[in-house]
Structure formats: structure tokens, C-alpha cells
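Cont'd.
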Amino acid sequence: MDYLVSILLLAVTTALINNLVLHYFVGLCPFIGVSRRVDMAFGMGAAVTFVVTIAASLSWLFTYFILAPGAPLTSAIARAAGLTVTPDLSILNYIVYIFVIAWAVQLVEMYVRKFFPPLYKAFGVFLPLITTNCLILFTCLEVMRHVPAAGLPPAEPWGLDRAVIYAIFAGLGFMLAIVLMAGIREELDHADVPAAMRGPGITLIIAGILALAFMGFTGVDTGLARALGRDVEPPALEAEAPPETAAGQGVPAPAS
Amino acid sequence: MATDVEANGAAEPVLEVAPGPHVASGSLTTRRMMGDVLLALLPLVVVAVALFRQAALLQMAIAAVATVGGEALFARWRGRRATLGDGSALVTGLILGLSLPPGAPWYVGAIGGLAAAGLGKAVFGGLGQNIFNPAMVGRAFVMIAFPAALGAEAYLAPAAAAATTGATPLTALQMTGEVAPLGPLWLGLTAGSVGETGALAALAGGLYLCIRRTAAWQIPTGMLLAAAVIAGLVSLAGGSFTPAHHLGAGALMFGAFFIATDPVSSPLTPKGRFVFGAGTGALVMLMRTLSGYPEGVMFAILIMNAFTPLINRATIPTPVGGPVPRRA
């Protein structure tokens, strides 16, 4: 039961409260580039969800067994070689993640080209560009921060299960955001948007308003945890203005 | 009916059939709708002025002037004819002013009005083309930009009530679990935003709007129904607010009848309107019960505004004589 609750909390937090597009503003290139039609947006959301799940789970495996400080596999090799130092390959993290992501994108590309040729045509350059989608690297890095390692245990260690759930809901959150945006942009086809604002301009403004709206979910995780009987510190909230959501909050926004 | 007419010896009804062009009906113009809304807002304005005196007048005036001025300014920039005559900017500004706390500094209303006219409406191309409710865009903008100015101390205790605390009933519920008595809650004798406290006044104005068909009745019905059902479940699970408390508290009535029913940013189909209302009500209750904010009407309406195009797509009605819809 406690496990289910924690999984539910992780899912809600990832998909709604800390929605990767609308809270951290990562993955904006496909969010703007492929949000013109709802069906395409849905396809892109599905592709990103698939890639991010594969990439994050492989990243967890590689980090836990090979790359983290004192990882079991590397340690065994080091012992067999007669070394006494604790091996630490975490310097290779980024390179390995990028390879994993590129491999997963290739998989998706072959699959889409074979089974959905019109979708493949419609995606154009944006399908291989999933490789450089910062949302996916962001998820891998977030997973990396939570991999239980011998040398440097994180505050909240995630098992492989948590990593997979996190990745799936990160992808679903992206899908929600991009499908919403596509619906709005289809509606805007008939609107008299000022010339300077057409395309990416109005899309970014809508993304900003959506982000404002999604701030309403702030604190739902602690509320949910309390409602489900989990012990949490009561949040010290000002009326109508939780301090941690105040404008000055330093959102750790990685460069896109 | 026809027999009645014959029995009374009156003339038969004349059906005029003529080729186009026809004389357009003046009954459903933007101007008439906005006039209706202004008329329906009157009870709320009266309650607001009675409760908060100059503070209420000031908030409404600043927000209205800023919104109307912004509208004129942005229309001029684009070289478009300013559409002030239809009164839509005035309604937006008035609703924005009514949704601000009475103790908010003057620049909050001014910036909120400009954001409502510019970010909420002008960038989308003006009246009828905006995706989000302009007044709520303006309010969300200032609420995130000036969280301190719109915090607890901006909520003055109404002059007419004996309340000593400035906390709104929903804030009190969240912080201390204190339950406000039902009577003052519905009459509006509590702290709160300028125009949100008088639930009964909002209900009266809202019913007039629904009868005049200026507002679609499905939206408030769905919204209040969903909120009441969820509030009932919450109170069964041990919450101290009953559904009657939740319906009367905060901006739920005001939002259900005046904000969510904005015909531009809500769905077009009857079924879609009901879905829209129910979704808004459910989100309001989700945010009231679980989130860090005591109230969620603004966020809920903005989120459902974003869903509106998708709801429209999903609820296209079958035309009369059209293909029989396939059951899945």
C-alpha cells in the first residue's frame, strides 16, 4: 500500500505538478515544431514517451551496474585486476546516456518508417531530432541523481521501478502538454493573430499561460500524501501565495 | 395553439417567406450580451460596494479603466478599429476588478487589466479569437507576479461585518480547519475578493443570464454539480466543509456563472459545455482540497480553457438526418 501511494505520488508529481514542459521548460523544440496538428502531436508524444522510457531505464542500469562510484560490475573487474581503488566511471555518464538515447531513437525511427510511412513523412526532421530533445537527457540526468550508489548515496534513492515510472510519466506529461497545444493551435488557424506573433511567438505565449494555469497544481503532492495517510511536514504556506512557488523561486532550469 | 387562435377569431399568424438578403436579428449581438452581463453583475457590485466601500469601487474602476485603455491602445497599434462599443472590454475589466482582493495595491489592477487586454485578447487577434478567458489571464498574471501584494493581508475584513480576521473562509479552512457559518458565507459577509463573497448575489445574476440565454446553462450546472458531488465525498471522508459551504465559499458561484460561461473560451456544443463545467468543478475541488492554494477557480478555468478545443472536437453533435453515430 505504501509502495502504491509513493508510486502514485511520483506519477502525479511528474506528469502534472512538475510537468517537464510547463514547469522546467525542457523539450520545447518539438513542443513548438510538431504541435500544429493534434494527430501529429499525439504521435510525437507517443514517440517521446517510448524513447524516454527506454533511455531512462537503460541509463539506470548502466549507471547502477557500471558507471556509479563503486558500481558492482566495475568493482568486480577492478578486484579481478588486482586494483585496490574504488572505481568511479561517472565521468562517462553523459556520453553513455547520449549513446543510449540515440540508439532508442533509431529504434523508433525504423519502426515508424516501416509501419506509419505518412507519420514518418509528417515528422520530417523532428523524428531524428528526438535525439537532441533535452527532455530526454533531462530525464536521464534526473534518474542519475537518484541512482543508489555506494560512494555517494542520494537523498531519495530510486530503484529501477521508480526510474521507469518517472520516465513514463515524464513522457505522458509531455504528451498532455503537446496535445493541448496542438488543439489550441488548430483553433488558432482561424484567428487573426498579429503577423509578428504567428507561429512560434503565439505558441510560446500560450505555453506561458498554460504554465501559469498549471501552477494551480502546486502542492497537490503534499496534499495528496496527507490525504492518503502519509506523514509529511505541514507545508508553511502563505494564503494564496505559497512561498516556494513565488516568482523568485530558482527553478533549476537546464539550458535547452 | 392554432385552434385557440381560430376560436378567438384572431388573424392567422403570418409567415413571411422572402428571398435573401434578410434583415439581421438584433437580438443576439455582442453588445446585447455584454449589456446583459453588466446588468447581471449589478447585484454583485452592490454587495461589493456595501461590504468594502471605496476599496471595492477603486479596484473595479482601476481594472476597468486599464482593460478598456489597453484594448484601445492595442487595437490602435494594430491599425484595427477599436471595438470598445461592444462593451466586452468593460466586462472583462469589471470581472477582473471583482476578482481582485480589496486591499490590493493600485498597480495590481492596472497591470492586470493591461495583461488581460494584451496577453489575454490582443495577441490572439481580439474579441472572439482568444483561447483563454482574458480576465483570468490578467488575474493569473498579477497573482504570480505579485504574490505578496495579493497575499493574506490584501483581504480586508468587510466593513459591514463584525469579522475580526481578514482571512477568507477557504484560507481559514486550510490553515486552522475553522468552519465559517453558512449564513454570512452565502450573504457575503466574509473576507474575500471584491466580488466573490456574495454567493447569493452571484446566483441571482447568474440565473438571469441563463434565462436570457446569454450564458449557457450547462456550464454552471455541470460545474456546481461536480463541485457539490466531490464536496460531499470530501465531507464524508472527514472534511469539515459541507457541500453547501463549498458552494457558497470563495469564487465558485461567481466563477461558475460569470467567468466559466464566457462564450468565446468555452465549448460550443451542449454536451461539450457540460463536460467543460464538470471538469472545471472537479479541478476547483481538487485544488481546494489538495493544493497549496486555498482557492482554485482561476486555475481550473484556465486549464479547462486549454482543453476547450479538444472538447469541441470530441463532442461534435450528429446533424438531424445525418449518419447514425457508431457505438464503440
